Amino acid sequence: MVITQRLSSPRAVVDAVGQELATRLRTRLDQVEDRLRSTLRDPGDEFLTKSATHLIDAGGKRFRPMMVLLGAEFGPAGTENVLHAAVLSELVHVATLYHDDVMDEAPIRHGVVTANTRWNNTIAVLAGDYLLARAAELGADLGETALRLQVRTLGRLVRGQIAETVGPLPGVDPIGHCLRVMSDKSASLIAMAVRLGAMTAGADRAVVRALDTYGELIGMAFQISDDILDITATEAELGKRPGTDLREGIVTLPVHYAIEHDPRIAEKVAQPIADDAARADVLALLRSSPGLDRARDEANLHAQRAKDMLCDLPAIPARTALAALCDFVTTRTM
């Protein structure tokens, strides 16, 4: 399936694939929503429940749970453990958002004030830690293999965040460093989600491996497109202010490519750009740079490679949906 119109979300992409799959996923995603809140609800501590569910209640694409559910379509097992895996994947993702917002001093996420803004950094960090603890409980229920996958992914997430914070060391290719950061910090969790879905559903090992690679590749494409949107999209479209990476002094792939075209940009992004007017000027400069088109080409390359990984998988509606998501990733920045 090739997307010929711009669809608004990953869920809309799946809805366009077929009614039976869409209905099944919609039902299970509704169950995931309920379980996210029940998993985080502490009857004896109203404040803990409120702070832990703050970003859950704000909404989100639920892209990672959907990847779990699509991966599970390739196996014969029932839905209980699959739902556990879907909830687990979103808890880990949202935990990273709590922590990211503290490091970025972000005021808005998903159109609402962040936990660090509503309360303080300590509460936001602890809320994120609580989500990780609850996710670990679910991972333990899924067995040692699933728990090890979760722990390895957490290690990659932390490694990617540290590498991004420190930046490339002298003599290290900055673009290669940027790609490694994206692989660890972003793609690893998407790969974990689709792999975990297939594993918990009892899919064939070869299918699990192919989906793992697919997840890594589409995760890279998705992050590159997010980095482009941080430059090109409006606050209403993003649910947060554009130019977040510039404000934090993070040089993303499209910025690296813009620098290669115009080295003078390097000086402008060498330090965090806190001033709104200065950041708007740099955003305008980046929007006119050929570096954005090169970044789009890189996203397209990863998305196509992800789609290629699906060729030998069973020809079921979930495979069509996963391929359509590759098209969605490459069209959302146009």
In short:
It is an enzyme of class 2 (transferase). With 334 residues, this protein is mainly alpha-helical. The chain has helices at residues 10-15, 19-40, 46-52, 54-57, 63-72, 80-104, 115-118, 121-141, 144-166, 174-200, 205-232, 235-238, 244-248, 253-261, 264-268, 276-287, 291-308, 317-331, and strands spanning 108-109, 112-113.
Question: How would you portray this structure in words?
Answer:
This protein has 334 residues and is mainly α. It has a single domain (10-331), classed as Farnesyl Diphosphate Synthase. Helices cover 73% and strands 1% of the residues. It has helices at residues 10-15, 19-40, 46-52, 54-57, 63-72, 80-104, 115-118, 121-141, 144-166, 174-200, 205-232, 235-238, 244-248, 253-261, 264-268, 276-287, 291-308, 317-331; strands at 108-109, 112-113. Strands 1-2 form a two-stranded antiparallel ribbon. Helix 6 (80-104) runs antiparallel to helix 10 (174-200), helix 9 runs antiparallel to helix 10 (174-200) and helix 11 packs parallel to helix 18 (317-331). The radius of gyration is 19 Å and the shape is globular. The protein starts with 9 loop residues before the first helix and ends with a helix. Residues 1-7 have low confidence and may be disordered. Its EC number is 2.5.1.30. Pfam families: polyprenyl_synt. Keywords: Magnesium, Metal-binding, Transferase.
